[in-house]
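Q: Protein A?
A:
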Amino acid sequence: MTAPRRTVAHAGFTLVRDYPASVAQVWAAFADEDQKRTWFGTDDAWAAGEWRFDFRVGGVDVAEGEFHGGPLSRYEARYTDIVENERIVVTYDMWLDGDHISTSVVSFEFEPVAIGTRFTHTEHGVHLDGLDDGAGRREGTVGVLDRLAAFLAR
């Protein structure tokens, strides 16, 4: 039997959103565990599993669960830089049913603008063995930022 072909694909993207909320409010959505869990760690179609939150440089967050009864998804992030109300930098890994599918470096930038906050998400990913790709990751991130927008609008 032949071993599966191992591949590496690189992809990056930047998403910019203007939220009608102060920088302090958008920041708190990331820095406060209860707030983050409300918009990031839950969804009607998401069966939550393990959850950890440790918002500090060197801290690790984990969000695990099944989406629409599908494969077990695991997100594990380590904070590498935090400048209050300005930026957060993380590295994170994703797994599906125990298979490591990607490693990414992400920066979140918070900038005051006339309507509230300009939020910039910039991601550079390494996608492994054809199990994930940049287009899918971008699409998933758009959904996460849509949930953040809905949370901030309530």
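Q: Protein B?
A:
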Amino acid sequence: MTESRPELAERAARAGSEIALDGFRTDLAVETKANKTDVVTEADRESQRRVIDVIQEVYPDDAVVGEEEDALKDVPAEGDVWIIDPIDGTNNFVRGIPIWTTSVAAVRDGETVAAANVCPALGDVYTADAEGTYLNGERVSVSDRTDPETFTVCPTIWWDFDRRDEYSATVRGILERFGDMRRFGCAQIALGMVASGALEGTITNVEPNPWDTVAGVHMVRQAGGRVTDIHGDRWTTERRGLVASNGEAHEAVLAAAREAEAYRRE
């Protein structure tokens, strides 16, 4: 019997994470891509190759969207697609900070059907299927807090140097509305934390990449949370901004994200 997509997503993510972990806290050569903070290592490339190999052994005809190398960069609207981020949180990875993950999501006709974020340096595995979201095999749900003054919210997806005023406005929006703030430098883990109830929300007004978001968005939704774009519409990979919350005070989380809009540059 063919392996199910939820099972394969986790197995492929674990296989890629093992490759990445072998390079963690070693003397890696670090390259830059679009800017000085957009970094990549050979561990990223090797991990992605391993994930793809595992997937294609079972589903050789499925499309692959991935951050590195020659994988597709946009998610096809139809068909079966795998979305891969071999190391989400590479800046943490190269600094020896253990907050990074190997992310794999399975999508069919634009809708996510399975997701896995394996965080080997933390010892955590987040997964989601058609039934729910799980942390280390135990079913989890979003936080049940309703008072925004008790919320902890995380800004996510980095703003370029010429957009730091938007970042500052986002931080101010969080500080003025909620009890506390965190920033982890790994969007997928932040989304997993919303799904598991460790955070009440995570926000950005920039246009995120699918490999940074799709798996974690599925986890939040399957755990009972809400994810929209900056306008409050249901989030998809074609939307700008990402606002994920436990759903109890989504408008307040959305308002914090919108603080950046006055400073936005095209």
